[in-house]
Amino acid sequence: MNTQLRRTAVAVAAAAMAVSLAACGSAKEASDNGSGGDEKKKDGPLTIGLLMPDDQTARYENFDRPLIEERVKELCADCEISYVNAKQDASVQQQQMNSMVTKKVDVIILDAVDSKSIANSVKKADDAGIPVVAYDRLAEGPISAYTSFDNEEVGKVQGQALLDALGDKADDGQIVMMNGSPTDPNAALFKKGAKSVLDGKVKVGKSYDTTNWEPGEANKNMNGAIASVGKENIVGVYSANDGLAGGIITALKSAGVSPLPPVTGQDAELAGVQRIVAGEQYMTVYKPFKPEAYAAAEMAVALGRGEKPDTDATVDSPTHKGIPATLIQPISVTADKVKDTIVKDGLYKVEEICTSKYAAACKKVGLQ
């Protein structure tokens, strides 16, 4: 080939590559802006991947999953939900995400076991044109939308409830902080919110991050705290959720602590609500699951159809800024508020809470 022909061939190839790259860029921009392209479904059935993190926390199987499925069916009767649960195993969830990408689902709702380790799988989904809705926990990577509660506010609510319960006793001893799992970004926000209220007002004798939100781990840690601080010196316990509170209270009882100090909680699990009625746990944070679950379903259907989700805020993750979000406010529930919140909203019926074991306690707090 002579020099002139070689130059011509190179120029043609460069021009073709430029056109190709421009086309790819346009398609990517259209997808990023939510306007979609020909590959986006505008109507008709969608396949929605739904990934929950564990089956130990009662809310995921009892409330989140059925409520999301309910709302999806209301919005799209022909839509199919492909559901999996990681059972608190981050590597299993990565495999589940990758499988969803291989199956070419239209959109994924993800409640991450580990917000950092799942980032590569989120990117794989994004590269495949599959939007990912982060549910309850903000996963890293290119998330398309996010819904959860104002998690820092959850911690503030817990911290303030503990201070209210302690009253003048706040200066008489020390508290134990039983925080959530270090792999859960929400746990860090709960802790941050709680500390913003508690710092300077109570002395923290021991503080723990509880691996995988395991009640058994909380029980072990609480036993350690009792041995280190002394049971007579513990005036209260910040517990990040109801499951941990159960392990904590078991440890306190086993150590012969009576009366029990105020212990916080979160998630309004049935066992937690029963402990509150019985006077063993001071409070829980009730997070109405329905608006959160419905928001996730609505986001997923909108994104699957190539539309922008209806959101009212933005959040930043460690890897991405300005993620469209819907944040829901938490509610503090003590024994005197169970009837007007949890029961009123239909989370549990009175007869579910007030079994024979708790009948007398229910009567005492006016829950009949």
TrEMBL record:
Q: Which InterPro entries match?
A: Bact_Solute-Bind_Prot2, Peripla_BP_I, SBP_2_dom
The protein's matches in SUPFAM superfamilies, at most eight in alphabetical order, are given as: Periplasmic binding protein-like I (SSF53822)
Domain of life the protein comes from: Bacteria
Give positions of region: Disordered. 28-47
- Where can this protein be found? Cell envelope
Give the signal peptide as a residue range, or say none if absent.
1-22
Where in this chain does the entry annotate a coiled-coil region?
A: none
Where this protein primarily resides, as one coarse class? other
Question: Which Pfam families does the record match to this protein?
Answer: Peripla_BP_4
Give residue ranges for domain Periplasmic binding protein.
48-308
**Gene Ontology terms: cellular component:** outer membrane-bounded periplasmic space
User: What Gene3D superfamilies does its record include?
Assistant: 3.40.50.2300
Any idea which UniProt keywords this protein has? Signal
For molecular function, the Gene Ontology terms on record are:
carbohydrate binding
Q: What is this protein called?
A: ABC transporter substrate-binding protein
What is the species of this protein? Answer: Streptomyces carminius
